[in-house]
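Researcher: Re-running this chain for the archive, since the previous output was lost when a drive failed. Same request as before.
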Amino acid sequence: MAKSKRDKLRDVAAAKVRRVSEWCESFVNYIRSECHLSENTVVAYRRDLRRFCTWLAGRAIRSLTIQELSEFVTYLREQPLAPPSVARHIVAVKMFFRYLQLEGQLNDNLVELLGSPKLWERIPQVLSPAKVEQFLLAPCQSADALWRRDRAILELLYATGCRASELSSMKMEDLHLDEGYCLCHGKGNKERLAPIGEMAVAAIRDYLSHDRPRLIGNQATPAPWVVLSKSGRQLRRESLWELVKKYAQRAHLPTTISPHTMRHSFATHLLAGGADLRLVQEMLGHASIATTQLYTHVDQSRLKKVHTKYHPRA
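Model: Regenerated structure tokens:
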């Protein structure tokens, strides 16, 4: 029985969707194996491309116009996405289109004509030193079975400015407590040294002496990660987020607090204390100093101090 025109159109649309889906998977494999991007970045780009495919709704990539691509940016801004997430979506699609060009699937790349929105249209959330102190003391012996572990987690986040994923993947061999530093494995498997202050070192030693041996239990081969779950396995970064939310609520802090808030607070407090911008960039693992400069806008007192100290007419 011959197919109707509607059925043929439906088949064509389904074939386009399958083709784009196959291209997306090939691209994801490419950025993982050839570009060596971190797994978190790969997962984020895959998620971004799924949203792009949802917006595409069966349309052919080759026939997209610049007007339609501009509508995609509008579509992103209408979603519950932060400005950095919108920017990342655009970067993911640009990389995807470049890959299609490389594979000979696309001749013209109109996505390159799209401008990216400013990454920092909002100022990151930062806690005052007093609020940080309140937060760090939230885990307590009377309410939490693993309060030493949890306090060590919070202390490490603030002391080093490391990301949740970096703390989750940190291994015992990365800790050098006698020397007062740790090794962080950041985006793209880049490594950097992060100093650890005395209070954080004390909290970590307390955890390593009491909670961690109990979590390891009778494992024949102890887990290599610093921070362990209740079952003695690697504590996932999602669990770190949940812990931060839990203790933020207990400390009567905003519900928007996240592990990244501690990273923002770390950088802002260093700069407010007079730390060199380049050194803070190195400790945060930022590829560009422009990203680090954001924190000079967060804390205007640092600019005033520098002006007062160095300007002859201050």
